[in-house]
Amino acid sequence: MERKSFELGDIVQMKKQHPCGTNEMEIIRMGMDIRIKCVGCKHSVLIPRAKFEKNMKKVLRSKASEEGQQEEQGT
Ligand SMILES: [Zn+2]
Predict the structure, then answer these.
(1) Entry's Pfam families (predicted)?
(2) Which of 1, 14, 15, 36 is deepest in the core (most CB within 10 A)?
(3) How many domains does the chain have?
């Protein structure tokens, strides 16, 4: 099992599409609940971490790894 890792400022792809048509969200606040902002319409929602992890498909752009451009590689 791989554990999803995400950080503040990451752009993530959600499994469910937002009504505005995009499924990309930016993490703008982390805590017990996570606040994400829709990249398309700038609407922000607060959702429990467990639900977020379940609904998140993958991290599209990580703020932390922007410089390195390193892709995760399984061996
Ligand atoms: Zn939206």
Answers:
(1) DUF951
(2) 36
(3) 1
Distance CA 25, CA 44 (A): 9
Residue 18 has phi, psi (to 5 degrees) of -75, 150
Q: Which residues surround ligand 1, an ion (CB under 5 A)?
A: 18, 20, 38, 40-41
Q: Decide: 13 and 24 in contact? Cβ < 8 Å.
A: yes
Q: Residues in the chain, how many?
A: 75
For 19-71, write each residue's pLDDT tens digit: 999 999 999 999 999 999 999 999 999 999 999 999 999 999 987 665 655 55
Residue 45 forms part of a structural domain? yes
Residue 43 lies in a domain: yes
